[in-house]
Structures
1.
Amino acid sequence: MDFTYLTTEELSSVIKYDKRVIREQLKDSVLFEGVHYIRPFGGRKILFIWERVEEEMLNGATAASLVIGL
């Protein structure tokens, strides 16, 4: 499966949320590492997986996404 990876700035422009809101309010409370975003090569840079973020926005939190997020 092919995924579309977005930086915080790119995600911000797509979903119309400020970068700071994504980093401080959504990341690790709604968007979880390994599910909605990754840190490639163990670095500091964050890449969001657009298809999973979009699914979360459309469907909300599901039992499966909550279990995976733990």
2.
Amino acid sequence: MKIMQLHDYFKDSTGVVTDSRKLTQDCFFIALRGENFDGNQFAETAIEKGAKYALVDRPEIAQKDKRLILVEDTLRSLQELAQYHRKKLNTKVIGLTGSNGKTTTKELINNVLAKKFNTKATQGNFNNHIGVPLTLLDLDENTEIGIVEMGANHQKEIDFLCKLAQPELGLITNFGQAHLEGFGGIEGVISGKSEIYEYLSRTGGTIILNIDDPLQRKWMSYNPHYTFGEHSDANCHLKYLKRKSKPLALSLEDQTIESQLHGEYNFSNIGAAVGLGKFFGLSIEQIQSGISTYQSTNNRSQRIEKGNNKIILDAYNANPSSMKASITAFIYNKKNRGVVILGDMFELGSFTQQAHQQIIEQLESSGIERILVVGEHFFRTQSNDPRVSRFESLEEIKNYLKQNPIENSEILIKGSRGMTMERLVDSL
């Protein structure tokens, strides 16, 4: 089927849905396949429940109803449809990637730019080869700016996502120790994430650079570019205001911009949003409003009070660089007894045990009163420090917390998404 015809079906629907549990009336259901599922099996049911069309790639299913549209590969068709739809729009697209802070930065940028423009941004962490097409198909003729988050765990993935999203501007939050297994080490991470800048250099797009990051400054020889940060040469010159135990703030043109975020690692995330606000001509008042009203959610540095404990829940994801940054910020900002509860970090390949041991050593050299770690990787670490307790599973640590309750403490909870560390909150 030609992509133009497929786009006509899409335009005649209320939007694309890939999860049969989330069908909406007159939607366009796309039956994707995975290792443990086949969406084709739900295509007929989708039509019965109100989908206007369903895209399938199994001929025997397509024969059952004229509203079942047959293609060779539904995933590839989804990607091609998104790419074609993107080309039909006048929307300006900002692409962003990085090892840490992508989602927070994306949401800050969206919160700021929405003060002046009609914007749409990636929902949640829909940032892969399926999520990016879904984000693009959510853009419409009224969308002035789209903010598209791009994740990757191997080389050439960012380049592929850029070809789908066709961003005019791009930003890398940072280069950290994430997905080391797929990238093959930190040099691979730098190379893989930099594919967004390489794409923009080929297509004449604008690179948005954190001038304070020495690994990004090498791109300043490329034009056009726009820089933000504390360096005096920055196009958007900022001053990060360090205030212990208070939310982060920064100064722009002698005016203070307050946030509701904690942890110095968030300074550059806020800075990126402020920089793009200036780039797009927002007033300082509009930028201030966008930053000050943003609250982190979905287990990203959420601040929770439970009894007489104050909890920082940062269970959205974790890698060695983000883990070290969170611990450093927690130690700096805590007022009372400090307890750290950490879960395993994933996708580190041959670096796995070394990375987990380094986190233990960082904690041993700190003044943290209690250190609880959980997961098979942390369980295999070595420590003679009496403050360190290791557990193989969440159930094991839950039982420990029932018998050894934590009282009147500040607590950091962090781990990779697969560890579901938020499940421990009810045990505190």
3.
Amino acid sequence: MIRRKYMRTRQLKPGMKLDQTIVDRLGRSLVIRGAAIDEYIIESLISHGVMNVYIQDGEMEEEEVVISSAAQNQIDKLYTEDRSKVSLSKSVRERISHGIQSIYSDTNIENMASTTASITNDLMDAIDSNNAIAIDIGELKTSDEYTFKHSVDVATISMILAKQQGLSRKEIYEIGISGLLHDVGKTKVPLEILNKPSKLDDDEFEVMKQHSVFGYRMIKDKGEFSNDISLGVLQHHEKINGTGYPMGVKEKQISPYARIISVADIYDALITERPYKQAFSKRDAVEMIMSMTGELDINAMRSFLESMILYPVGSIVELSNGEKAKVVKNSPHYILRPTVVGVKSGKVYDLGEDLSCASVIIL
């Protein structure tokens, strides 16, 4: 059972979970509720003068899943490892977290280009190390602060999509740079708008929509980034049908980088909880992406659907028929419908190919 406990920050231990969102004096989120604490977070809280916090005390009671012998036989027979995924070591995550924080905390730093390049090189190495062609967004966890984590998530997803499309190493690298910086213009948006805990009114939204223009100007002024990178930042909210912003351009007028970043940006924003909205489930977020065929580039959408892993092999899921099942195989063509085995019945549900399973979905 989970209880709320009030503790001195200096008494916190790595692994504890916060039961509140911590904000700084400017109203910016430092650490979100539910985040697992590490030494870096403890030191950051103390440095910001946060001397006491609420933590989650106790553990969630998890129902034990017993797998029958019949089910285990099927699992052993059908078990197929997921496609190689991007994986970041603890030291790389820490290095990336420090780097992205330095960029977004002080956009006037002279070494923005070199810091961004360093982060992107780390991401390229992570992709190259196991020839990753897929991504499980839950495994990245580079930071508990939304802006920093979102920037790295978008960059990583975008780089994998670019790889799926067969783009060159230079293009994959540049789209990583553009993804990291796509929201840097938000540092110029007034804090009362940026951190508003409710829906923006029309005037506030007009100001918010300028963040892509602010970001474009910021990196163009530095003269260290290519035009393709700059356009990726400027146009990442444009839509194929011309309903996007800031210019309302459409189709071929939108840069290739922006088309990819747009899909990554929308997905990651949907699955993240913010003060003004609940997070969508990964399944719901994917279905929303799939419904946006008139707004998003079809090639970027296809690459996205072939890259994301929603239900990692080995995970336990609940089916709409009431049965619990273990995921044994994913297909890049059926992101929402892997092959699973009922943990009690041993029944195989090939949700992607078997028409007899058409009415069964993962809840």
